[in-house]
Amino acid sequence: NPLASAGSDSPVPEQVDVCIIGSGLTGVSCAYHLAQLVESGAIGSMKLVILEARDFCEHLLSLVRRNGGQLVVGRFSKMHGLTMQYGAEEAIKSTAIEEYTVSEIRKIIRENGWEGDVDLVECRRVNLVFNPRDLGGIESDIAAARRAKVSGIDNVEVLTVEQAEKEYGAKYPGYRQPGNNLWPLKLVTKLFQHAQDPAASRNSTRSFPPAGFSSATSSSMDLALYTHTTVMSVIPSWIGDSNRAYDVQTTKGIIHADYVVHATNVYVSHLLPQFSEPENAVVPVRGQVIGTRASVPRGELWSDNFVGNAGFEYWFPRPCPSSERPLIILGGGRESAPWEYNVTDDSILDETVGKTLRGFLPAVYPNSFSKDTEPEFEWTGIMGFTPTKDPYVGLVSSSSARPSGEYVSVGYNGRGMARAFACAEAIAQMIVAKQNGKTWERPPWLPIWYLTEQTRTGL
Ligand SMILES: Cc1cc2nc3c(=O)[nH]c(=O)nc-3n(C[C@H](O)[C@H](O)[C@H](O)COP(=O)(O)OP(=O)(O)OC[C@H]3O[C@@H](n4cnc5c(N)ncnc54)[C@H](O)[C@@H]3O)c2cc1C
């Protein structure tokens, strides 16, 4: 983590245009998109800081920093219910945003030649259905997605028990579609470096900038990162002598800012208590993960990534030579704990969850995993769940007693890799539109139900 403690010893600036709180995928993606908007000429210049209480990208992504994160479009999940609630045209946006995120991230990786830097593995995502009762629900979701002509739905293929056993050694039916794994911390590091200095972070000899972008340098983008800098409060600066809208009180002093982005995920309610109300809650849910070796070499095992047991378990191999036994990253086991809801302590492991995880792969693939193999790694992390199972994106609801330049993008329900980058783009666009005195227009891939009430009513 080359940026782990970047800026931790430096004093913070007194004045900035935008202050982003949190250096995870959301905060850094927001900085990346703002830098792109400056580079494209959509806005003249910008002084921007990212403030991080811990190490750079420390929280959730630290948990997956030893392994790859799954970057997969959920093409049909919840499609039936969403169609009933919002109509087919809006419902397909639940897939459109993930499709957009995955294709944009892959495009950026390709254009900059980062494939090796971020350990991108293009593979297939296999969804194994353990309980026959789940089949009906999945089939109606797929049927609804086909009726709505969800992009890519034709790439979803059904796996019979016989096929799954032949190809994977697992006796369960399932579904399969294209997928990707990558190393999240490495991606976020690259995105930050690119936002700060696009030319320096590029490996590719391919021509750049891409079509549609001016060749202006990013010299008008002034981006700095301050780790080990906790934000304690964000208050309107009506009373002070600053011309800026907000006083951001940090452990290193006050920063005056025009815009504030809360990219704090599961911690959001510390600064914005309204996100602890039941209808807007971001509920902390602990996830546990192990890294364990297969008992056969990679050449005799699958290289796809998997989800099973109604989404509770997910697993995938780390790349290695075909003669070596691969390390498999397996997360889940919450159903045996039970659920791990409202658990915020990521410093301890749950014994029951650990036992479930240890028994899982030998039970699903008896010929490729041994019950006697102890995991090489085991760790936990906290995910942010919401009542809608989708994130909150947009302006923070406020009374007329506060200025309206505070934004939030939090609560990805364990699917941040496929959504945070695009949600952060929407926030960057909202800021630039407001700064330019224009009305923000919702991108075609952004579901309306992701938007905060304040943003929805302003449309
Ligand atoms: C074990 C595990 C495995 C996962 N695997 C996957 C996967 O394979 N695919 C997928 O799509 N998703 C996965 N997820 C979910 C994904 O990691 C998250 O959705 C994503 O990381 C959220 O990013 P974020 O930037 O919004 O939040 P975070 O990464 O949590 O960043 C928020 C940051 O804000 C900082 N912060 C909070 N409060 C303050 C403050 N007051 N002052 C300063 N800084 C503050 C925190 O320290 C933190 O670094 C997984 C999650 C876990 C726990």
Automatic annotation (TrEMBL):
GO terms for cellular component: cytoplasm. PANTHER family: FAD DEPENDENT OXIDOREDUCTASE DOMAIN-CONTAINING PROTEIN, SARCOSINE DEHYDROGENASE-RELATED. Transmembrane segments: none annotated. Residues 17-196, 225-430 form the FAD dependent oxidoreductase domain. Signal peptide: none annotated. It holds the Pfam family DAO. This is FAD dependent oxidoreductase domain-containing protein.
